[in-house]
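does this look right to u?? 5-O-phosphono-beta-D-ribofuranosylamine version
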Amino acid sequence: MMTRAPLSAIVLISGRGSNLQAIIDAKAQNRLTMNLTAVISNKPDAKGLERAHKAGLPTYVCSSQGKTSAVYNTELLQLIESLTPDLIILAGYMKIIPSELIAKFRGRIINIHPSLLPSFPGLHAHEQALAKGVKITGCTVHFVDEGCDTGPIILQKSLAIPENCTADKLSDLLLPLEHEAYVEALSLYENQGLDIIDNRVSIKPK
Ligand code: GRF
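got this back:
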């Protein structure tokens, strides 16, 4: 039987890095086989960088501070190309992904968003959901395209919003679901492969 080499994946973060941690833990538990070859942050003080160090992962800071977006985008693209990843995982990365990067890695950039897309894209998804009074929300793992949280959906998980919920509480409730969803989606990606047809994702039969 042919065995494929594990994928090489890099993770982009801007902050806390709890999704990164879930991926690191899943890898340690052999729930994922992909090699995490680098963690890149646009913020030098991102807590996720400590998590990466602790796990022995190479880290890079590509700071956007004081740079035009053209300069920042070029630096980011050069760094990513030098790392030759198979897959780019966005885990709380708060910058717009340059279209050149999307074009070069189409179908190979994955993001997680804390709502049931296409509802509540962009910033403050929890607040948006509460403001609309929806009773059910969730999280979405999706491929990244040129739009804001518009790419093909890989997997979603939902939960009922309790009475008198706040944005912080909702975020706390959603986070464990996000961690589960991200690991599941990455496992599908590496084990089965995912086809994107007409903006819809289907799981390739084994
Ligand atoms: C998560 O809620 C994720 O859905 C959103 O940003 C947050 C990142 O959290 N894109 P963390 O840094 O992974 O803890």
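The beta strands are 8-13, 35-41, 59-61, 87-90, 109-113, 136-143, 153-160, 194-197, 200-203. idk if thats expected tbh
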